[in-house]
Amino acid sequence: MASSNGLASLGVEGASAAAHALSLPAEAYGNDPQLEVMWAMKAYNHAEVYFNLISSVDPKFLKLTKSDDKIYSAFTESFSDLNLELLDPDHLKSPEAKERWRPFCNQFDGIVEDFNYGTLLRLDCRKDYTEENTIFATRIQFYAIEIARNRGGFNDAVFNAKCKQQSKEEQS
């Protein structure tokens, strides 16, 4: 994932203002383009940290939340038919999919912090976050899918690719 200055480019005062703005309830805002940029930056930074994590640590051993087991159990019960390796955006965003996801997501209100906040999710788990390989999803959808991918070995390709790259660099 390409690095950028992200929030650091805002400076201390700008980052502080962004943090304060992001802590206010959604009702406090209209469609403020600056706020949308801050949310996008926050989602991008979250994605970058997560991708670096699964590149550096065997994903099978990662714990993303204190509720991983509950999320995984509910997810596998509700979405056992979902292709985790290559997600179809329609299975997340179509009107039918939204109706199916809504009760799943809402059961984590009060259990998973910021369960309905937006975040970035990779469609193809073997690839990095790119414009073509990324979809906007709720945080609980991200957690559910990524916990299942980690436990099912789907993110191993990312981890193994990084290990091979490091091995080649050490041999050079």
UniProtKB/TrEMBL annotation:
It comes from the Eukaryota. It holds the Pfam family PBDC1. GO terms for cellular component: cytoplasm. Residues 35-159 form the Polysaccharide biosynthesis domain. InterPro entries: PBDC1-like_dom_sf, PBDC1_metazoa/fungi, Polysacc_synth_dom. This is Polysaccharide biosynthesis domain-containing protein. It comes from Alosa alosa (allis shad). The lineage of its organism: Eukaryota, Metazoa, Chordata, Craniata, Vertebrata.
